[in-house]
Design goal:
The protein contains 11 helices and 12 strands. With about 280 residues, the protein is α/β, with parallel strands linked by helices. Strands 5-4-2-3-11-12 form a 6-stranded parallel sheet, with helices on both faces. Strands 7-6-8-9 form a 4-stranded parallel sheet, with helices on both faces. Strands 1-10 form a two-stranded parallel ribbon. β2, α1 and β3 form a beta-alpha-beta unit.
């Protein structure tokens, strides 16, 4: 369908660019596609510098805006989604100051978790950097100040999610080991997936938790909220019913070649990204 055949549609001037250090942002892609399957998306991951969760704030402030600048030159998007909790909590103000297009960031879903919990005991599963940042503590104090929040910082789970999309599934035993601090808390009833990588493993994590006796857990991430925010900003820009021109390539940009034998290209194709490009 085109804007010519359906006048109520508005042709976007460029795709939405979803950016992460790795494949975690694909969980945001899935949330966007669920709300609007035909939304024109381009994906980009700074896999040369993966993972961001182990980098210092100063390093992120230098690296991320430069990579984003190069991507904007190539992609010419109409909106940028920084689909990384680490980058969002550190670099978002710098990106908004430097670039004129709308920029959407991702933060742990602490506010909805605070509203969802019945027992008042929440689990935050994120990278070590995210759970330690003052920004996260301020979110907890603001939106879950009356709750008990147990935190697990797992950089390992980020790599396990990357491996899973590349064709190597994590063992249930390893996932249970990561979740054990939550399993030791019988009142805990809501788990925040505070890294965009983690929803990619949610079904397996939930099954492992249920088999360990935690059938009552609620799982929450930022995907749905980000999708709503993107569509709201598009409507504010005059595109309440955005149309996807055929000229928009459904491509994925990388900053380093993939390892030989990686199954990531097949996973990307399943999400509609037919072409891999290397950012010089």
């Amino acid at each position: 369908m085109t804007a010519d055949t359906c006048p109520t549609l508005q042709t976007l001037p460029g795709p939405i660019l979803v950016f992460d250090s790795g494949v975690g942002g694909l969980s945001i892609v899935e949330a966007l596609r669920e709300r609007m399957p035909d939304l024109p998306l381009t994906y980009a991951c700074d896999n040369e510098a993966f993972p961001y969760g182990l980098k210092s704030d100063a390093w992120l402030l230098e690296r991320v805006p430069e990579v984003v600048a190069r991507l904007l030159e190539q992609v010419q998007p109409c909106l940028l989604v920084v689909a990384c909790n680490t980058a969002s909590t550190v670099v978002l103000p710098a990106l908004r100051e430097r670039f004129s297009l709308p920029v959407v960031g991702v933060v742990p879903a602490i506010k909805p978790a605070g509203l969802m919990t019945r027992s008042g005991h929440i689990g935050l599963l994120a990278t070590q950097g995210t759970i330690e940042r003052p920004y996260t503590q301020r979110l907890i104090e603001t939106f879950a100040g009356d709750c008990q929040v147990t935190r697990i910082g797992s950089n390992c789970l980020v790599q396990l999610a990357e491996d899973a999309l590349a064709g190597k599934q994590p063992s249930d035993a390893r996932l249970r080991e990561i979740l054990q601090p939550f399993l030791d808390e019988p009142r805990l009833d809501t788990v925040i997936l505070g890294c965009t990588h983690f929803p990619l493993l949610q079904k397996q994590l939930a099954r492992v938790a249920e088999e360990a006796g935690a059938q009552h857990w609620q799982w929450v991430d930022s995907g749905a909220a980000i999708a709503r925010r993107v569509l709201h900003l598009l409507a504010e820009e005059g595109y309440p019913n955005p149309c996807c021109p055929d000229t928009f390539a459904r491509s994925c940009w990388l900053t380093a070649p993939l390892e030989s034998g990686s199954q990531l290209p097949q996973a990307l194709q399943c999400l509609g990204f037919d072409e891999l490009k290397l950012l010089s």
